[in-house]
Amino acid sequence: MVIFLYGPDSYRLKQNSHIILDNYRKKHPGGVFFKFDLFGADEIAKVEDAVKSGSLFGGVKLIVLKNVFFNKADSDRIGDLIRSQNLLKEKDVVLLFVENQEGKELTKNKTLFGLLTEKDNMVRNIEYLTGDKLLRWIKSEFVLRKCPVGQDVIRELITNVGNESWALVNEIEKLCNFKTVGIIKKEDVTLLGFKKTDLNIFDFVDAIAGKNKSRAYEFLFKEIKNGRDPYYLLTMIAYGFRNLLTVKDLSDRGMSLDSVVKKTHLHPFVARKAYQSAEKFSLTELRNVYGHLLNMDTGSKEGVINLTDALFTFVLN
User: Fold this and answer.
1) Per residue in 41-79, pLDDT tens?
2) 201 phi and psi, to 5 degrees?
3) Hey, what CATH topology would domain 201-316 get?
4) Closest to 212 measured CA to CA, from 277, 296, 293, 272
5) Top-level CATH class of 2-125?
6) Distance between CA 142 and CA 149 in Å, rounded?
7) What is the number of other CB atoms lying within 10 angstroms of the CB of residue 49?
8) How many CA atoms within 13 Å lie on the side-chain side of 190?
9) CATH: 3.30.1660, 1.10.8, 3.40.50, 1.10.357. Which one for 131-192?
10) How far apart are CA 157 and CA 134, in angstroms?
11) How many CB atoms lie within 10 A of CB 112?
């Protein structure tokens, strides 16, 4: 069985994947769970072993896969694995694909995208919400936190924040913590004084790449103080280093900047900044940094680490 979640809205993508994981654990308490990020080296072989290996306890096997579109050779092996093991029909092996990219990017690999979106698969495109859908989603987040709120507050939030779900959830959390008694009002939004700011991830990555710990620390402190969600920061840092790793790998193979832009489909500005920053790292260093970021992600979700503390430790080490 294949479940395919993709789209640009990273918070709601994470939210939907967690719902599937929670339902799986409740329905199959004796099931086996695996998670692989194919951006890492040699992960594809581990995926194949996980699919083909039997379980001592039986039950349904859930395998979560991320970044399967990153490497064409790995993508082809995933497609071959699905077909050879008849995984579209296999009920005891569930593959959950999670891709934080828009469909127009993923469809560049038509073969794999077509396989994952076959009619019998569970497929959901997690796009940014607008209009009534956005209003209902924000309302549901307040209800989830048992915070009464009027439509004027929701509309004020949208005016101030936009439809970026990470930023919206940050503000919802702040409002619910601020107004513990009574209904949240429009003036409460004004009182907290949210100002929309853009996260300049390039400055942060440049500070880390240049071993400028004080600048990186200052950047992180400012973002946390302004209420930026730590997981959102981790997501953006991982995105920055994933681009660095991709560009570094290609540049080490002798590709020019123009060739890197064509190969990666990155925006020329993004590719150029990554190309410059990647020169300050070896490929091994970038793999180690990205692997550490993935471990932080896993540790945070499992409740093993405090993500805010881990981020500060990351920029200081």
Assistant:
1) 678 999 999 898 865 556 788 999 998 988 888 899 999
2) -65, -25
3) Zinc Finger, Delta Prime; domain 3 (1.20.272)
4) 277
5) alpha beta
6) 7
7) 10
8) 4
9) 1.10.8
10) 11
11) 21
The yes-or-no verdict on residue 195 having pLDDT over 60 is no
What b/e readout covers 176-214, taking b as 16+ CB neighbours within 10 angstroms? Answer: beebeeeebbbebbeeeebeeeebebbebbbbbbeeeee
**pTM of the predicted model as reported, rounded to 2 decimal places:** 0.68
Asked if 101 contacts 68 with a C-beta cutoff of 8 angstroms, the reply is no
Tokens of 2: 């294949």
By the 8 A CB rule, do 208 and 166 touch? no
| pLDDT greater than 80 at residue 116 | yes
The DSSP output letter for 166 is H
Cβ count near 241 (within 10 Å): 27
C-alpha separations of 81 from 32, 40, 78, 120, 155 in Å: 19, 18, 5, 18, 47
